[in-house]
Specification:
69% of the residues lie in helices and 8% in strands. It contains eight helices and three strands. It has a three-stranded antiparallel sheet. β2 and β3 form a beta hairpin. The longest helix is centred in the last third of the chain and has 34 residues. The chain is elongated and about 75 Å long.
């Protein structure tokens, strides 16, 4: 499975071959920093690592008197790895929701029916988490547990409920797209 920066960058390159500078400008334009802090140096380092692994290919381009620039495009190997990472990211859950957020941004890479199946699996996983977490919560436990433990459990329930709501929203978009097809 790819790292979060690698997944994000491969998804951007999947849409259109770009150079590193264009990618950093696109990330700034998209205001990614407000939910996932990826520095320019991480972009450059990650691109080099993706190229070494054969997930992207760089082609040097010269435009007029400007310095040479490397335009990166996705390889077949990179596309396969990206799709597999998106699939795995959708059907896993942990409290660092950035990987799912990245996968959700890139979900259109997958076919509509596959998106629907994966999101339904995610919804089932989230509902299982909610059931498990909720079993811990009781009046007796709340009276005996330290207040920060109780508050943290409630926070965890809030996060899972938000993920359930967001997943349902994404599923409804899948249903709308399926009806259009």
């Amino acid at each position: 499975m790819l790292s979060k920066p690698a997944t994000l960058l491969l998804g951007i390159i999947y849409e259109k071959p770009l150079n590193a500078y264009e990618i950093t400008k696109l990330l700034a334009y998209m205001n990614i920093k407000w939910w996932f802090n990826i520095s320019d140096s991480t972009v450059y380092t990650t691109l080099k690592n993706l190229e070494k692994k054969g997930f992207i290919a760089g082609a040097v381009e010269r435009v007029g008197n400007m310095p040479d620039r490397t335009i990166y495009s996705l390889t077949g190997k990179g596309e396969d790895e990206l799709k597999e990472t998106i699939r795995e990211s959708i059907v896993q859950f942990n409290y660092d929701t950035n990987i799912f957020t990245i996968a959700a941004f890139l979900i259109d890479i997958l076919e509509t029916e596959e998106k629907k199946i994966l999101l339904e699996k995610r919804l089932n996983i989230l509902q299982s988490y909610l059931t498990g977490i909720s079993k811990q919560d009781s009046e007796v436990w709340e009276q005996e547990a330290p207040p920060f433990h109780v508050a943290n459990l409630m926070r965890m329930i809030d996060i899972v409920n938000a993920e359930i709501s967001g997943t349902k929203r994404l599923l409804s978009v899948c249903e709308e797209k399926k009806d259009e097809e």
